[in-house]
Amino acid sequence: MGKPIQETKEAAGQNGNAIKALPLESPVGYGGRKRDWIRILRHLFPHKVRRLLAEHDVLEHDVLEGMRSEVQWLRDHMEHSLLLQGRLAAHAIAKGRPLHTLADAEFRVYSQWGEDGIIEWLVTQVAVPNNRFIEIGVDNFTEANCRFLMHNRNWKGLIFDGNENYMRKDRMFWMYDLTAKGAFITAENINELILEAGFAGPLGILSIDIDGNDYWVWKAINVVDPAIVICEFNAILV
Q1: pTM
Q2: Does the chain have fewer CB atoms within 10 Å around its N or its C terminus?
Q3: Where are the beta strands (DSSP E) in the chain?
Q4: Whether pLDDT at 179 is above 50
Q5: Is residue 92 pLDDT above 60, yes or no?
Q6: What value does the mean pLDDT take over residues 214-220?
Q7: DSSP helix/strand/coil, 61
Q8: CATH 3.40.640.10 correct for 127-233
Q9: What is the 3 state secondary structure string of 64-78?
Q10: How many whole angstroms separate alpha carbon 9 and alpha carbon 3?
């Protein structure tokens, strides 16, 4: 038995040539039919279709830009709300609320877990020599141990990660005294990198989180004297 002949339509082009349209039930699906009809319309009405497609691209661009602006506004609003809550929590800690464990001080604004609160409590209890920090292993610094400290207490900071340009996309660089250095950190180069950045000497906080040789980097550092050290470790090995 032969296959049924599918019904087709023909459209005459401006040059008089006949253009065979797709079958009414095209096997290529909606996406394929759409592309073929655009091709046909471009042949029939080249200038009008070109203008319509250009207007569509402009509209699509405007819609996407509007969505990006809305998302950025939401992010900024959420960040301001979190920062305000963090400052309220920090104020409560500064008033000397008694703690039974460090967990009682925990709160999170920018840290991965509750480090923001613990650090805030520590700087009220420890005699820090200055308001400077070095944080090694920050990714793009949106999630970090010392970011809230910089926001809340206006600390000066030096941060390290592999891609300096990635870190510098953060607007914090024009709002605060923050230095970023892109480098692969090792026990052999860390002291030289700190010296080059002008951060040698007494230090408020040293934070190390590089998912690997954290301990050996910490052990090698001898150009700073931090009052507080935060260093990641693997609890399985303890």
Answers
A1: 0.68
A2: N
A3: 10-12, 18-20, 132-136, 156-161, 178-182, 201-208, 224-231
A4: yes
A5: yes
A6: 95
A7: helix
A8: no
A9: HHHHHHHHHHHHHHH
A10: 19
